[in-house]
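FAQ

Q: What does a record look like?
A: Structure on top, sequence underneath. For example:
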């Protein structure tokens, strides 16, 4: 069996450090917003060269609190992509804002920046791009549009920790960057967790209060807030892994290069646009014979996943938005052809070769 992600292999290289940090936290008996969370926030702010990093319970909460912190509210329109995880649009709907979808670039899977401007109205207040599967969205174009129309930009970096565009890390282009530490992510905890990075100290203070019941201090509440706190155990684990994240990402890139070398004549492989540094949270191929490939892999004990088989605009829960089939043809076509293959730093050359041979035989 070759799984999509094998966290046990990663553990073998960091087991002692993980055990030590867990023991330290348990001995301290301090589990919420303690020294490990503060240290992790500091390390993240240094890694991204920003003023503020705020640990929260999940990336969904990070997106929600970032939008709220920057004043996006009921009736405001937020432009985003229909080809992403449901949490992206949930965060918009939590504040009763209106998601406005823009079709994607066929090769990067990200929002097509060339199509954004046509969707801007007087109600548009923000753009929420997603750096899907680890490839940076076209942030330079997006930021030019945002500046022209005075829009906020909240980056969904759930799958792109360490990714860069022209040597600048994603998450630092817009007003805020939001990250996920779900276990399977490039930088993953052993539970859930999220992070917001930003430079605006005033907004950061608002978000810090929002994550902790709107509290300014013990039992002093200036606004209605939420319970969204990164816990000490997850922060401790993430501190250990953060030291190795660049190494992990380079291993992913090496594995992706091997896949592409073996498969490029048989399927459409993911690309890396000029100036981009892809971190391959997923290695996602395109094929008109997607289902046949997946069945063949399954027969041989190899995992694969169809992420986002139904684009957001066609989801039953979002019918009230009024979209219909055919509105975003590239996203719809991608959802019928995309297949993600096993991808993690410790994936072996022999395993990639085996996966590739089975795909070839299926075709």
């Amino acid at each position: 069996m070759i799984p999509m992600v094998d966290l046990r292999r990663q553990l073998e290289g960091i087991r002692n450090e993980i055990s030590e940090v867990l023991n330290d936290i348990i001995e301290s008996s301090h589990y919420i917003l303690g020294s490990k969370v503060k240290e992790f926030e500091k390390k993240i702010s240094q890694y991204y060269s920003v003023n503020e990093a705020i640990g929260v319970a999940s990336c969904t909460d990070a997106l929600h609190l970032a939008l709220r912190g920057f004043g996006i509210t009921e009736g405001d329109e937020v432009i985003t992509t229909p080809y992403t995880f449901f949490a992206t649009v949930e965060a918009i709907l939590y504040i009763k804002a209106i998601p406005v979808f823009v079709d994607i670039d066929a090769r990067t899977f990200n929002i097509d920046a060339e199509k954004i401007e046509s969707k801007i109205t007087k109600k548009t207040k923000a753009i929420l791009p997603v750096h899907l599967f680890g490839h940076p969205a076209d942030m330079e174009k997006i930021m030019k549009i945002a500046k022209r129309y005075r829009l906020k930009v909240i980056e969904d970096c759930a799958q792109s920790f360490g990714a860069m565009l022209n040597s600048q890390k994603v998450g630092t282009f817009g007003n805020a960057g939001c990250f996920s530490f779900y276990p399977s992510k490039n930088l993953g905890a052993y539970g859930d967790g999220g992070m917001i990075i930003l430079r605006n100290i005033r907004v950061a203070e608002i978000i810090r209060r929002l994550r902790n019941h709107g509290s300014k201090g013990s039992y002093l509440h200036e606004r209605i807030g939420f319970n969204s706190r990164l816990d000490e155990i997850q922060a401790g684990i993430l501190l250990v892994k953060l030291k190795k994240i660049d190494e992990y990402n380079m291993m992913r890139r090496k594995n992706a290069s091997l896949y592409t070398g073996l498969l490029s004549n048989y399927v459409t492989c993911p690309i890396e646009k000029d100036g981009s540094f892809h971190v391959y949270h997923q290695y996602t191929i395109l094929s008109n014979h997607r289902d046949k490939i997946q069945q063949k892999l399954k027969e041989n004990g190899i995992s694969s996943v169809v992420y986002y088989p139904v684009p957001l605009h066609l989801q039953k829960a979002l019918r009230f938005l009024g979209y219909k089939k055919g509105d975003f043809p590239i996203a719809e076509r991608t959802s019928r052809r995309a297949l993600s293959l096993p991808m993690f730093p410790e994936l072996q050359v022999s395993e990639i070769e085996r996966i590739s041979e089975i795909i070839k035989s299926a075709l």
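Q: Is there anything notable about this one?
A: The chain has a mean pLDDT of 97.
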